[in-house]
Each structure stands twice: as C-alpha cells, then as structure tokens.
Amino acid sequence: MTYQLRDYQTDLLDRINKAWFSGHRSLLCQLPTGGGKTIVFSTVVHQASKSGLKCLVLAHREELIKQAADKIEIITNEPVGIIKAGYPANYDRDIQVASVQSLVRRLDRCPQFDLIVVDEAHHSTSRTYRTILDRYPNARVLGVTATPIRLDAKGFRGIFDELICGVTVSELIASGSLCQYKYFASERSMSVENVGKRQGDFKTEDVARANPVAGLAGDVVKSYRDYLPGKQAVIFCINVEHSIAIAEHFKAAGIIAHHLDGNSSSGERADVMTQFTDKQIQVLTNCALFDEGLDIPSLDGVILARPTQSLSRFLQMVGRALRVCEGKEHAIIIDLAGNYERLGMPDDVRAWTLDGLEKKQRERSKLVRNKETGEVEEIVIDLTPTGTKFIEIVGRSIELTPELSFWIDKCNRILFERELNDRKAAWCMYRLMESETKPPLEAWQYLGKKLGYHHGWAKYKFAEWQSISEREVSA
C-alpha cells in the first residue's frame, strides 16, 4: 500500500536525506502531534530497506511498538520483527521494531543495524536509549518527536547533531491537516501552592495532596457535561488513585467511563481501546499512559485534570484531540489546572533548538491576562455566558484562502532566506514590503507570529505600509 505523502512531509523527507548526504549522522526531526511522524519515518525505513539496509525502530510502549510495526508493514509490504517480551523473535528480518526495555537485554543476540529510528525521541537521553545507540556507532540515527525538549527543558546536543523542524501546529490547522480547537480554562485553577518539583515538573504526591479528589472529580464531571456532553473525551489525571476515582464519579453520573494506567494488562488495554474506538465508552481516564501514542482522530476532546510545568507533556496531551476527522468541526480542550498560563497555547510559535526551547521565545510566549479587557498576550479571553466558572481561550486563527496561501508561502520563503543568510528579524519586514502587490493584514499577522512578535505589531506595520503606499500614489 502506498501512502500519499503531504507536501510538508515530502519536504521533511528531502531535508532529512540532504542532511545525511551532507555528512550529519544523527538527526532529530520535529513534527507536531497529528502531523504524521509515523508515516514519515516509515517511509524513511522503506527507502533504507529497498537499499539493502537493516533497520531498527525503538519505542518504549507497546501501543507505539504495534503502531510502528503495523504502519511499516503496510508501507514496505515486508514482514517486521518485534523485539519485546511476549512476542516471537524473528531476528532474521531486515526491519525490527523493538521495545527499548527488551532490546537492551538482548543486544548480544541482535544483528548490526544500519539505520536506527527513535520514536518519541524526547526520551532518548535516558541511559537505556544511550546504551543501545552506543552499541551501533556507525548507524545513521533519526529521532522523531513532536516536542524536542526534555522534562527539565534541556536539549539533546551530544545525541543528535542536527535538528530538522517541520511545519508548525498553526500551519497544520490553517491547512486543515489538524482541526481548529476551543480552549476552556477554569477561573479557579487547581492548586500548586506548596507543591515541590522533581525533574522539571510538579511532584505528583504534592499535587494530589493539594487537590483532594472528592472536589476535583465533581469539577471534571461538570466540565464534561457543560462542554463535551455525550461526546468522547480522554482525561489526564494526577495519579492512579485520582484516575480511578474520577472514572467512578462519571459512572455514578450515568456516563460510561473506564480507567487505564501503565499497570493495566495488555489484554485489558486492548479491549478497552477497542470499545473506546467503537464509541462504546464515552470517557477514558488515565495517568501518564496516553500522553503519547494515542491515535484516535474521532476523539472530541481532552480534559487536563493535572497541572504540569513540562511543555513537552502539555503539548502531547492537548495534541491528542487535534487530529482531523469527518464531522469534527473543532476539538475541545478543558484546562482545570491553568496550564495555558504557564506554557502558552497549543498553536503558539515555538523556536526549537538542540539546546532546548529558545529562551527569548519562551519569554515571548508568556501569557498575562488583563482583568479589565480579558485580553492575554497573543490570545483573547471571553467569559462564557454559561454560569459556570470557566473562560474560553480563543487563539488567533487565519482562514487559508488561495490568495492567503500565496502570501504564507512567500513569508515562509522569506523566513527560510533569513535563516540561510543569518539576517535579523527586521530584514523580513523589508523583504515583505518589496512585494509587487500590497501584502494583506493576514500576511503581516502570519509573519509576526512566526517571528514571535506581539500581535499588535502586524496591525501597526500593515497601517504603516498602507500609509506609505498612499503617499507614493499621491506623489
């Protein structure tokens, strides 16, 4: 079976191959959740396999392993070996998908590999991954992730020597590759007072202590009834006890719900996921299980019933709901924990580097709400007239028309030229002003957002350009 690659996926593949041919051995590739990372790396594996190379794909969860193996077999039409406890070993197959936990104990039994793909590569700094990668020093390496940042916000230099970033979440939404979303946040967020930190995120036991499940569960059920009634939702919880309790509250309210976590058996997880996919279950609660690897395009929304300081975890959670599905107008994201205040919005522009998130960009994406106007930098907050203590966070979105598509392409070419020639940000403005036809306001908004400017910059520059054009005409 042949997948029809989207233009941005083809561009990403070209850049990956060019980086390898230019001498880079170990690449880190970034593409947002829902952008088709599995299809991209499966195509890379297919190309390598056709050239006679032995390929290894690393993943850390059974769902990810099965997804990768299934997709690769479809694309390559070749049998794939799975290296994991409970699966028969087929080391003679040229393509292997392996559990890192199993492979690290079987390295002496495995063949040499020419290409190693690391799925969810933001985990690759752990000792287990590094032990495996060190075993194959001559292999080409491709790490793939939506969030090239560690929980402690540090980067990956020393493991990867080149970062290749794909299109942004906002670009995928504008092109229809991801769906629009509505973001609801509680005016009274979950407490993080006196909560300690561990490895860059809040301590789970402290968060649970600060937010008793009895009151929290009621808020979760109410928010579901208000914004996702009768729809399918995944709820991200603080710990297993909270997840179980919240599922029970849903059941008591007559809503079909089920809890899963990392200790659930493979059989139970498979059975529940089948029921959820078939819409026999409305609500799925979990603890640290579905941050990654959940691929259900019909999912209507997510509820964040846990605070986090990890940008990676936040983007992975909200990204579960952004996949496109027929009949799905928008995703619903309900934030009970004030995560948007710490980490921004799902489609904020972020400057990824091998050293972590660029500091200036992190500062620019800080959100501060004006209580009088309801405005937050880069977004607008409207109080919803529902009587509930929730506010809707509405991100700036641009409708992609054929004319605007031309201007977005032009802006992207300007940004690429700027990066290639190491130009200052202001240079992009003058390049856009050199256009033969007058750029619309949306073009200035797109360019400003890509450069990390405040939203008012676009309106100011558009008005300034109009004034210049009028003076030239009158002269």
From TrEMBL:
Lineage of producing organism: Bacteria, Bacillati, Cyanobacteriota, Cyanophyceae, Gomontiellales
Species of the source: Chamaesiphon minutus (strain ATCC 27169 / PCC 6605)
InterPro entries: Helicase/UvrB_N (IPR006935), Helicase_ATP-bd (IPR014001), Helicase_C-like (IPR001650), Helicase_Restrict-Modif_Enz (IPR050742), P-loop_NTPase (IPR027417)
GO molecular-function term, one example from the UniProt record: hydrolase activity
Pfam families reported for this sequence: Helicase_C, ResIII
Residue span, Helicase C-terminal domain: 220-365
PANTHER family on file: ATP-DEPENDENT HELICASE IRC3-RELATED, TYPE I RESTRICTION ENZYME ECOKI R PROTEIN
Ranges for domain Helicase ATP-binding: 18-166
Superkingdom per UniProt: Bacteria
Protein name: DNA/RNA helicase, superfamily II
Alphabetical keyword list: ATP-binding, Helicase, Hydrolase, Nucleotide-binding
Cross-referenced SMART domains: DEXDc, HELICc
